[in-house]
Every structure is written in C-alpha cells, then in structure tokens.
C-alpha cells in the first residue's frame, strides 16, 4: 500500500492522466490495522470489497482489457529524476554522465547551455577565505514531506543508512544544507523508537517542521560558498525526496534539482555532489582512511522489513491523530462566525480575483496573453519560490510586507495581484511572443 501510494502521488506531478488501481488484498487490511484504523472500519472495508467481487488477487480475473502492459521487474533499477522535470528519470548508474552532459546541452528542459570554457572549477571568496567550487556540488539535501515520507519503509531505510554511515565515521560536507520535514508526526515516533533519529541528526537531518518546506521553496539560504558559487555561474544541485523539481522552485540559485528516495538523499548528502558514480566511487573515507561505498551501508530488504514490523505501531497513529493538530490554527479569528470569507483588498496573501467582478458573457476581441512551449507548468506561471528583487518584490514591499518574508516565505504572498509580477521574476523567460 505505501509503495503504491508513493507511485500514485508522483504521477500527477508528471501530468499522467491515468491512475494505478489494485485489488483489495489481505495486506491492504493489514495496512489499515497498522495505521491505527478501528477494527470495525477494517471489517467494513473487507465486507464492501468482498460484496463487490474486488477482494483478493483473483478479483480482476475475467475482466476484458483493450490492451495489456507487461513489466519485467528485473528491469527496474534505482533512479533519480532531474535535473529540471519530475518525468526525466535517470538510472542511478547514469547520474554522473547525465549531469555532466546536461551542462553543455542546449538550454532548455534538460540542459544548461554552458560553453566548454565554463566547465572548469572556480575559486570564490567566502568569509575571508578562498574556496574552490565546481559544477554539481550539492547545495541542498532534503528529506521532504511529499508522498514518500508517509512510506515507512523508505524513511526507516534512510535512518538505517544514516546509522551505518555514522558507525563508519562518515559525515556530511559543510557546504550541504540538510533537513528532514516529515509529512506526519508519526514518522518522528517510529524513527525515535527505532533509535534512528540520532544518526540522522548527526548527519544534519534535523526535523525542521511537518509539512511543505524545501520542496516548495522554503529552504532558506544555502551555505555562503554555494551562494557565491551560483553567483559565479556554477550549476549547484539539490537532491530531495519531493515530487517537484522545476528550475527555480527549490531555491532560486540552485539550478539542478533531482528527486530521489529518502535513503538516496542521505547518500547524496554524504557524497556532497551529484556527479558521482555511486557504484564505483566512494562516498567518503572512514577514520582509518578506508573508502566507504554506498553498497557498504545500504540496508538490506530484511533489515528494512524488520524495522517496519517492529517500530511502525498502530498506537503511534492513534495517539498522534487523536490530538489537536495545531493550537495556532484553532486560535485564528473566524470573523464572527461568518460562513463566507471577509475579503480584504489589502491582504497580500489572498484577495478577491478581479474576474469575479466582471460581467459574464461572450469573449470577443481577446488577444494572446502567453504563447508557451511544452512542459510549462503552474510553477512557471505562478512561481512558488522565493521572490527576488524585481517588480513583484517592490510591489510587496510597498504593501508593507517585510523583506525577509518576501524573499524567504513564498506562501505568504499568494494573491492574484502578484501572479503576473511573480512570473516575471522567474530565472528565465519562457514565452514565445514577440
């Protein structure tokens, strides 16, 4: 169930127009029990699916399909997706060559358009010291709150990998900004019960909150040397366990963004770069100077399954979900109990869209607003990332929004008045009108 939901959760990000369905199996009921559902609810689910002839592995037998797709499971390999789109899957074995090729590939969905002369490492001055930086260095490694942080197997796998890395004496390089933002407080409960929170924190993966953080541009500042590198034209990278990696979304200065599973996020953080062959290159050296490879610390399926069985407990779900989620939310003024929202035209978070005030009728004499190519998303039209200096920045500052909010908290400025201005603040133009 968690794996299936992880796949489903990513499909909509790559504009797939179909869903993945499966029969209700005994393991579906086990999942419901494991996550704290009442037995009466579990029994009702089973009764419904049995009555509908949808229970068990043979539920779909006799169904006539217009076409069938056969998947060779031996062809499934570890992969990441990037550097700019969630549908651009890259086998882990090819990630090094893929990234290096993207540097000189024409600027677009899969390339950065650099000349061969721009590939050399550069020296930047940071806090009165000289630092050598190069393309592919990792600026951000984030286990984020998207679909797969509600998948216990991959979260526990990340913790087990971190534990083995710490035992071998590995540490995360100082230029990598790390964070852990689970999608649920239950994650914290089972990581702590398994003794895995401590090794994750030792590698820098402290819990920074629950909900959308780095994956929607709330990463905050990167380390000074990575910002200096980006300012010099170096293509720095981010690896996150999120669903979206459009250019400029994670951080305005980080151009190459890869989606990966939580354990691969930890592995990339240890390496400190994305231009690495994880099979043949070491993540680092242990205190004795011996090389430590990803294969040395990758948890076995048996270790992960054992951790899930022992530490993912129904009482964790029951106790966390029975409590009030947020006292701050409950304390919000509900405008005197009104059932409708009291619009405030000066509010920069949400304001009434002007189209509601226009009379309805036939559209005549309209003109093209934007002429776009392929793979243009809502992120391009309404960027959900920090707003740098420009028309949108000045508009919000004039409205009294503090600079730190404008530049670091995109969720604080979501009204339609800033949409067009925010689109102009993108890292590159994408329209074709002249």
TrEMBL record:
Keywords, sorted A to Z: Iron, Iron-sulfur, Metal-binding
MF annotations from Gene Ontology: iron-sulfur cluster binding; metal ion binding
Superkingdom, taxonomy of origin: Eukaryota
Domain Aconitase/3-isopropylmalate dehydratase large subunit alpha/beta/alpha: 26-272
Pfam families (alphabetical): Aconitase
InterPro entries to which the protein is assigned, alphabetical: Acnase/IPM_dHydase_lsu_aba_1/3, Acoase/IPM_deHydtase_lsu_aba, Aconitase/3IPM_dehydase_swvl, Aconitase/IRP2, Aconitase_4Fe-4S_BS, Aconitase_4Fe-4S_dom
Disordered as annotated region, ranges: 408-434
Presence of keyword Iron-sulfur: yes
PANTHER family named among the record's database cross-references: ACONITASE/IRON-RESPONSIVE ELEMENT FAMILY MEMBER (PTHR11670)
Stated name of the protein: AcoA protein
Species this chain originates from: Symbiodinium natans
């Amino acid at each position: 169930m968690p794996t299936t939901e992880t796949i489903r959760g990513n499909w909509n990000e790559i504009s797939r127009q179909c869903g993945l369905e499966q029969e209700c199996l005994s393991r579906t009921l086990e999942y419901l029990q494991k996550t704290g559902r009442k037995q009466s609810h579990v029994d009702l689910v089973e009764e419904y699916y049995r009555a509908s002839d949808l229970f068990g592995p043979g539920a779909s037998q006799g169904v006539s399909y217009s076409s069938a797709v056969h998947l060779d499971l031996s062809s499934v390999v570890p992969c990441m997706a990037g550097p700019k789109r969630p549908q651009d899957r890259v086998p882990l074995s090819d990630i090094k060559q893929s990234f290096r090729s993207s540097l000189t590939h024409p600027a677009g969905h899969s390339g950065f358009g650099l000349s061969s002369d721009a590939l050399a490492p550069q020296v930047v001055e940071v806090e009165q010291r000289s630092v050598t930086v190069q393309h592919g260095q990792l600026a951000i490694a984030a286990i984020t709150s998207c679909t797969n942080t509600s998948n216990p197997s991959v979260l526990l796998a990340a913790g087990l990998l971190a534990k083995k890395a710490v035992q071998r004496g590995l540490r995360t390089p100082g230029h990598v900004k790390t964070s852990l933002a689970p999608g649920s407080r239950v994650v914290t409960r089972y990581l702590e019960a398994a003794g895995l929170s401590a090794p994750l924190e030792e590698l820098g993966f402290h819990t920074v909150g629950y909900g959308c953080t780095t994956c929607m541009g709330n990463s905050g500042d990167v380390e000074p040397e990575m910002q200096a590198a980006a300012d010099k034209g170096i293509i720095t990278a981010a690896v996150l366990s999120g669903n979206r990696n459009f250019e400029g979304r994670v951080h305005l200065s980080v151009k190459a963004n890869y989606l990966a599973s939580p354990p691969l996020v930890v592995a990339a953080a240890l390496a400190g770069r994305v231009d690495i062959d994880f099979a043949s290159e070491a993540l680092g050296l242990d205190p004795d100077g011996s090389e430590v490879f990803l294969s040395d610390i990758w948890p076995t399926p048996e270790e992960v399954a054992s951790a899930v069985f022992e530490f993912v407990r129904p009482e964790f779900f029951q106790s966390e979900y029975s409590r009030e989620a947020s006292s701050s939310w409950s304390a919000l003024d509900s405008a005197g109990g009104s059932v409708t929202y009291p619009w405030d035209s000066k509010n920069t978070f949400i304001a009434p869209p002007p189209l509601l005030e226009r009379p309805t009728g036939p559209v005549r004499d309209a003109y093209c607003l934007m002429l776009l190519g392929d793979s243009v998303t809502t992120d391009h039209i309404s960027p959900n990332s920090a707003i740098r200096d420009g028309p949108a920045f000045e508009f919000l500052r004039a409205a009294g929004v503090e600079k730190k909010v404008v530049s670091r908290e995109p969720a604080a400025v979501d009204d339609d008045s800033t949409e067009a201005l925010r689109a102009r603040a993108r890292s590159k133009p994408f329209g074709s009108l002249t």
